[in-house]
Amino acid sequence: MLAGHRTWIFENKPAIISSSAIGGPFEANGPLSDDFDLLHADLWLKQDSYEKAHRVLLEEACQKAIEKAGLQKEQIQFFLGGDLINQITPTSFALRTMGTPYLGLFGACSTSMEGLALGAYLVNTSGAKYLMTGASSHNAAVEKQFRYPTEYGGQKPPTAQWTVTGAGVALLSDQGNGPRVTSATVGRVIDMGLSDPFNMGGAMAPAAVDTIEAHFKERNIDPSYYDLIVTGDLGSIGHEVSLQLLKKHGVKINESQYKDCGMMIYKKGQPVLAGASGPGCSATVVYGHLLNSMKKGELNKILVVATGALLSPLSFQQKETIPCIAHAVSIESDMVP
Q1: Do 195 and 322 touch, CB atoms closer than 8 A?
Q2: Which helix or strand (DSSP H or E) is residue 208 part of?
Q3: Other CB atoms closer than 10 Å to residue 124's CB: what's the count?
Q4: Is the Cβ–Cβ distance between 288 and 294 less than 8 Å?
Q5: Are 262 and 235 contacting, i.e. CB atoms less than 8 angstroms apart?
Q6: CA atoms of 229 and 254, how far apart (whole Å)
Q7: Which residue ranges in the chain fall short of pLDDT 50?
Q8: How many CA atoms lie within 13 A of 149 on its CB side?
Q9: What distance, in Å, lies between the first and last C-alpha atoms of the chain?
Q10: Which of 148, 203, 245, 297 has a CA that sits 20 to 30 A from residue 125's CA?
Q11: 278: how many CB neighbours lie within 10 A of its CB?
């Protein structure tokens, strides 16, 4: 099951039997709006704080995925997930409603694939029959914590990214129909000495490249094995940096085959600067748009490399540099032999 130093091969190929994606008003105006199960018209979601609205996003995503699978929440044995807010309280408070055995994760914006990798490991080894994993973020809540409250109206540089308001979850099982999780490569913490919280893409790009290289080496496959290789939220800056690094390291990836969730979820003209970010970015794009594309037969094999910047407001105030990580998970259509 272990290939090389940090790649798992899942012999039993856990199935993603359902998934869901919930978004906010900015996501509703983007090109992937049809792939969301529910889109909200404002950021408040009838709550009195953005953090409470954040919690509701995940509650709704969980409820929708369970409903689509034809299950009851009592049948879900574990939930693995997290977010960016202090002590991942939106996720923990949402699980207060769910009542499901819960393992909270913090991988920053890499949490979606950290959860999918660990969840697939559990299901693959008969540690669970039905397991749910997901990640979420809320633009106003995250910006308030990590940068400036939106009400402040602070000017942002062109390297900055727009935090996605959204939640995406996947429901895994040891049997059933749906795309299969076939392998995962666990990331290492990479710190290149960058410290600008308005340039997350540039900081995370080396971590993405490190994990991509390890994945191909340890699985002994070529990038052409996949129809699509997609990073989590490098945005336009990080995407370009990662392409340059991949070429420098001799990894031959066709540029048309290599995309970024942070460049897919919003359209030209939306004021998102370098693109999207947040744990909800890769979670909603993968568990909404990309899985839908696989079910339509448009994609058969994809590699998702979710990226995360492991900083905190405190570490920034103490002038620490930004350690980053990326986790890769391969998903293949259940129609592929």
Answers
A1: yes
A2: helix 200-219
A3: 22
A4: no
A5: yes
A6: 10
A7: 337
A8: 5
A9: 19
A10: 297
A11: 32
The pLDDT tens digits of the residues spanning 59-80 come to 999 999 999 999 999 999 999 9
- Indicate the SS3 state at residue 108: helix
Distance between CA 249 and CA 243 in Å, rounded?
A: 10
Q: What angle do CA 92, 98, 104 make, to 5 degrees?
A: 30
Amino acid 256: pLDDT: 94
87's tokens: 């002590």
Residue corresponding to tokens 């795309």: 179
User: Residue 297: phi, psi to the nearest 5?
Assistant: 85, 10
This prediction has a pTM of 0.96
Handedness of CA 283, 289, 293, 296 (dihedral sign): positive
For residue 303, how far is the Cα from the chain centroid?
Answer: 12
Residue with tokens 């704080």: 49
- From 300, 261, 308, 307, select the one nearest 284 (Cα to Cα): 261
For residue range 101-118, list pLDDT tens digits in order.
Answer: 999 999 999 999 999 999
* Contact in structure between 234 and 260 (CB atoms under 8 Å): yes
Pairing of strands 166-173, 15-23: antiparallel
CA 151 to chain centre: 27
Other CB atoms within 10 Å distance of the CB of residue 47: 13
Residue type, 72: Q
Name the residue with tokens 């727009």.
162
Q: What is d(CA 133, CA 114) in angstroms, rounded to the nearest whole number?
A: 9
Q: Is 2 helix (H, G, I), strand (E, B) or coil?
A: strand
In this structure, the number of other CB atoms found within 10 A of the CB of residue 299 comes to 20
Residue with tokens 């620490």: 320
Q: Can you give the pLDDT at residue 336? A: 54
Q: For the chain, state the CA radius of gyration.
A: 18
Structure tokens at 300: 């058969």
Closest listed residue to residue 79, CA positions, set 88, 184, 224, 218: 88
Joined tokens for residue 13: 């190929």
